[in-house]
Amino acid sequence: MFEAKLIVDRDFVLAPLDRRLFGVFVEHLGRCVYNGIHEPAHPTADEHGFRGDVAELTKELGATIVRYPGGNFMSGYNWEDGVGPKEQRPRRLDLAWFSTETNQVGTHEFMAWCRKVGIEPMFGVNLGTRGPDEARHYLEYCNHPGGTALSDLRRSHGAQEPLGIKFWCLGNEMDGPWQICQKTPDEYGRIAKETAKLMRWVDPSIELAACGSSAYDMPTYGVWEDRVLEHCFEFVDYLSLHSYFVKPPAGQGSDTSTESFFAQIETNARYIEDTVAIADAVATRKRSTKRLKLSFDEWNVWYRARHGEHLKQAGWPEAPRLLEEIYTAEDALLIGGMLTMFINHADRVKVACMAQLCNVIAPIMTEPGGPAWRQTIFHPFAQAARWAHGDVLRSVVKSPGYANAKHGELPYLCASVVHDAATDQTAVFLLNRHLTDPMELSITLRGLGMDRELVLAEELHSADLNASNTADAPDRVAPQPLEGVAIAGEQLHVRLKPASWNIIVTKVLRP
Ligand code: AHR
């Protein structure tokens, strides 16, 4: 057993939490769309072919925004293929995932799904094989009220009102050699600027995200951000970040420890802080007071189903099983820690999308004609999305720690605190990274009210860090009540199990 402290003060607000921090991602990839969220023959399917059980789980997950239609898929996508009568839509080779795209789900079907699950869409334009002209046409088709060829085409497809899609990604991972039509930073920066200019002229109310590097460890990271922003800084609102958390294969002297796996929380914090530094340096160079926001629009654990399966398959299959990562309790703990880290960077990170939603590196799994279930990583995401509302308070953590080769001493405790003045509720999110010892934790909620009651206390813990949820045992890893939370004025005391993710919500009692 060891002791740790967490202290926050009502007056020390980092930033209001943007609820779009709890976004997800749906790509035309493997079984994410087809035989995932969409399966017309499934007993729970609606009139558009969307599974009702997956829609219910998506609502329970609490995702607020969804990125679509890719990913790498976006860089070869013709939006025109996915609108109009379904029987006339072309089948195409998808060069991103070596699959056949049937186009039976496109813009209108996906918007119907967004309405069904109550989630905001975040669309992207193809800056791989295409460019500014198609981008402005797609936006006009979606958002212009009417009276032009493209907006009237939309209306003839049944959508009288504009679709009102506010958030647009300017391409995807354009630095990556795997990308359809990879670009240099100058090529991409120029095209991003011109596309942004045209799109804003069509609809000034939109928000735009430019591609940052596809990963922190890309050899061109930093140079890419700097050059791209040199071209398009004034024209975009967000810079996009992507990160997939890995565990190296055993052998070759690699560190496969859980402690090292958890240190990716700090690696990604640095990624955010370094990217902010680059964006702000560009601002300084341009004598601008603008502070670019970050859209962390792909993130998750992904290292098992990552051996280029799509390159090995023959025959251009439809909706093959690709990237179907099975998550463990250990992964769920890292996801919880990552959420605390995102919350603690809410001053600059305004949007984040767990990649992806269904079957493909996903919190929700399905079997065709069969059940849908929650992977382990579903739980910390759902808890945070449900309870994190209001202002993020600056957390001061006092905790013993462990040595990490990359970052030095890391505290066992990762924590974030969000206070909602509207409801007087305070949510505290906690990861105990100690693998064997419980943590005796004191929490001081300074200035947040002396008289409070417990609303919710839950823990996610598994004696077996390799435990997974499956179709046959869907609830093996799931939150349980966290017992023994003591409240005394502004102080909370609790014992956290080793290797556990926890959430405590309290509420001030008003006379
Ligand atoms: O999410 C899977 C893939 O990972 C996306 O298509 C791509 O953007 C990233 O490399």
Bound molecules: alpha-L-arabinofuranose
* CATH architect. name of the largest domain: Alpha-Beta Barrel
The CATH first-level class of the largest domain comes to Alpha Beta
Structurally, the number of domains stands at: 2
As a percent range, the share of strand residues is: 25-35%
Which structural category fits the helices and strands? Answer: alpha/beta
* CA radius of gyration: 23 Å
Distance between the termini: 38 Å
The main β sheet shows up as:
8 strands, parallel, barrel
Can you characterise this structure?
The chain is built from 11 helices and 26 strands. The protein is of the alpha/beta class. The protein folds into 2 domains: 2-9 and 392-508, Immunoglobulin-like (Sandwich); 18-387, TIM Barrel, CATH 3.20.20.80. The strands form 6 sheets. Strands 3-4-7-8-9-10-11-12 form an 8-stranded parallel barrel, surrounded by 6 helices. It has a 7-stranded antiparallel β-sheet with strand order 2-15-19-20-26-22-23, with helices on one face. Helix 6 (223-232) links the parallel strand 9 (207-211) and strand 10 (238-245). Helix 3 (132-143) crosses helix 4. The two termini are 38 Å apart. The protein binds alpha-L-arabinofuranose (AHR). Alpha-L-arabinofuranose binds next to loops.
